[in-house]
Specification:
This protein is of the alpha+beta class. Helix content is about 30%, strand content about 35%.
Length: about 100
């Protein structure tokens, strides 16, 4: 899970950009079980962006992120959109599928 923040007036543009970059790369990486991008309008022109991805193992995540799976992966154009961002990602184990 990763979070960032964009200007609300650029959210559609950012969603399109991340769908073509980060989410597409997740899904091309062996061991990826799916990925989603969620947004939440916080008011005052600020929108939170949350990416969630599911993986079969931490080794599969390393195939995408590199050896340090706690460090967020960014793309060259991210600076154009993000007004704030987390530099790390959080990993959880699924305890129940219901």
């Amino acid at each position: 899970m990763w979070r960032g923040w964009v200007s609300t007036d650029r959210v559609a543009e950012y969603v399109d950009y991340i769908t073509k970059t980060g989410l597409a790369e997740y899904q091309r990486t062996p061991g990826n079980l799916g990925a989603q991008l969620w947004t939440r309008d916080l008011g005052e022109g600020r929108t939170e962006v949350l990416t969630l991805s599911w993986w079969d193992t931490l080794d599969s995540i390393r195939g995408f992120a590199g050896d340090d799976v706690e460090v967020a992966v960014y793309y060259p154009e991210d600076e154009r959109y993000l007004i704030d961002r987390e530099m790390t990602v959080s990993h959880y184990e699924v305890s129940s599928e219901s």
